[in-house]
Amino acid sequence: MINPDILCMGCMNPMGDEKVCPICGYDMTSRNNPQALPVKMVVNNRYVIGKVLSVTGEGITYIAWDKGTETVVKIKEYYPRGIVERNPDTSVFIPIDKRYVYNQNLLEFLEINNTLKNQSLASLQEVVDVFETNGTAYVVYQNLQCITLEDFLQRNGGTLKWEQARALLLPLIDTIKAMNDIGVIHKGISPQSIVVGRDGKLRITDYSISKLRMANGDIEMELTDGYSAIEQYGVLNIPEGDYTDVYGFCATLFRVLIGKDIPKATLRLEDERLSIPSSFASELPRHVLTALANGLKVKPNDRTQDIESLKNELVYGEIAYADEDDEDDDVN
User: Fold this and answer.
1) N or C: which end of the chain has fewer CB within 10 A?
2) How many helices (H) and strands (E) does the chain have?
């Protein structure tokens, strides 16, 4: 059995008596932010907390060591920013006037992650464990060896051909559909939330409770301009739906094929046309351009309504598009 005391709290590789990790450069004298759990704390009698990997309005994600399986994992702690504080004993303190909001979102956090834990979705970051302790809740994920899709594109010329993109991205559609079918809408699909593993497969990460990615909520909102749909900004007073993930996926596919982000959804209300250089448009199948146009409609009622319909359009649809002799083609 590996002694966690010899592990680097930055990457969880053995480092013996070294003070600075020769692999990741983590300084063992480093400490997490006071609002986060301290390094080497053991949660649920099983998980050794390492450094903080990310902080969002929903919570804090740490690298960790699973003593039960002796593997590296990632743990997200439900810790909504601006709503809670850290007690000296590391438990979570919720002010009385914030408790309803806290508990309401906590229930959704647990429901989403427990639901996904019981699913077998090939293109989703696997949920290993979900539990409550310390006055809050935690979800444990597999630790993927990966880079973001955005980084992958930057390392491979900035764009992909349609046949390359099709092989990589279409498998994600089945996972998004399965999530939508059980009531989980991601609302944050982008080249930053999709990762490319060492096995070459793409997986979806960073799903969250609804209010993190919807305007006028009671926790700190986090939207991704160019990938978040208009309904997420609270402009049209239209709720989220499966069509929200259609928009995020199509915006991601547009970035993959064309090499640029589309404008922020609120800026597209008056003119939603998207200009595609003819050099790209001439190489894309007509049904792909049509599918993108339908999936990127600003108003949800005009947009492709669900991810399965989008898949059918991408694979089987075929409608004529603008003249290839033009300098630019418009997706509209």
Assistant:
1) N
2) 7, 13
d(CA 207, CA 118): 16
Distance from C-alpha of 223 to C-alpha of 123, rounded to nearest angstrom: 22
Q: Would you call 200 helix, strand, or coil by DSSP? A: coil
How many residues appear in the chain? 332
Query: Residue 313 corresponds to which tokens in the numbers above?
Result: 């359009």
The pTM of this model reads: 0.91
What's the burial of 236, exposed, middle or buried (CB within 10 Å: 0-12/13-18/19+)? middle
Taking only the tens place, the pLDDT of each residue in 158-205 is: 999 999 999 999 999 999 999 999 999 999 999 999 999 998 899 999
Q: Say if residues 62 and 77 touch (Cβ distance below 8 Å).
A: yes
Q: Which residues of 257-273 are buried (b: 16+ CB within 10 A; e: fewer)?
A: bbebbbeebeebeeebe
C-beta separation of 261 from 253 below 8 A: no
Residues 313, 300 contacting (CB under 8 angstroms): no
